[in-house]
Fold this protein.
Amino acid sequence: MAFIAYFSENPYFDPNAEWFREGAGSVYDLELSNKVYDPTLGSDLWAQALDEKVFAEAVGFDGIMLNEHHSSPFTMRSGVMNLEAAILARITERVKIVLLGNILPIWDDPLRLLEELSAVDVISKGRLVSGFVRGTGRESYAHNSQPPYNWERFQEAHDFMIKAWTTPGPFRWEGNHYHYRYVNPFWRTFQQPHPPIWIPGLVSRSTVEWAAAHRYPYIVFSSRTDLVNQVFELYREEGSKHGYQAGSEHVGCVARVVVAETEAKSHELGHKFIEGPGNPFLEGSRGRVNVWAQNLPGLNPRAVTAQLPTAQAAFFRESRGLGQTAPLLTPEEMRAGIDPATRRDERSRRDAVYQGLLDAKSMIVGTPDQAIVGLRELLETVRPGILIIWGGDGAMTHDEHMTSIQLLGERVLPAVREIAEGLDIRSCFES
């Protein structure tokens, strides 16, 4: 049956802060100074986030998915995903800890990353799933990583880590980007030869092809069936080139699912989901990408870069299904504040954006029974062996998160498992 994990960005949400007043939550990515951070609030939010994940295990989820975005308020794990994973490794007992994923090119010392991941796997007694990503231009900018070498560093760091996990040390490594006289990580992983590796992403053809060549499950950060099916078809084509038939166990997707006891309450939460701190990776959010930080020179191959439209910000939004979230106000207007009439106009536009997400089936919102109907359609159409439910985010409160998790676990998961079993959808843990 399918593997089902729970996920939330767990943003730094301070609704009383000046920077988050109506309209000001739409700041450009990498533009907000950390001077707005309140450590007391941050400590409380961390405790709530950990409680939510422990509760997700208690209600029956198979895994907890973590990710990270650096130097940003739209996730509490701003660069410390592995630290949270280590905490969860000790305070949970059963769930897989799924990291989607570590940004390999920004690590100047992948041996240190390997040691951290090995520790998480040992502490959890073999519950780590390690995901690797290339990252976007924003991470390269924030960590001073040279974008022209992004793809090369990703592949070499991966190859080095696999060798260090599978080859008894000590040994020497002399590559193009990494050099070690002595490689001998003493604390080896609990899982042998190494933890499962999954590759998350969206529309990068080269990454899909690379994942298929390594038989790593590919997780699409979307539930739009047309997009997901295109990615899965490419994966299957590549799998056949490498001598195997890819099935449901090789593919997964992320579905935003918002549930409440009543339909009216679910839509209230659905609006809150996308109206927290601006997140450019959350479809429908007010978060906006800084073009200069996203498509850095050399990050993408020349052939791909030449095909980008002049308005590269539009390309970024459209490639992620975000075309309808175009900026409502200029940065100058946001900084100056907006009058009530503009607020009403913004609300009408936000309502239109939200309805567009529902129409595109990019979000499943409703009562548990309605959510089951939407997830059944997704399973029948896409057949993902890995289903990650993005069950809370944005401006949702801790209590709203906990109620949503409880409804998902008690009333939605059993039905989804039964549907997946009837469709003979298998996860990679069964193959």
Q: What stands out?
A: Residues 303-338 have pLDDT under 50 and may be disordered. Residues 398-422 form the longest helix (25 residues).
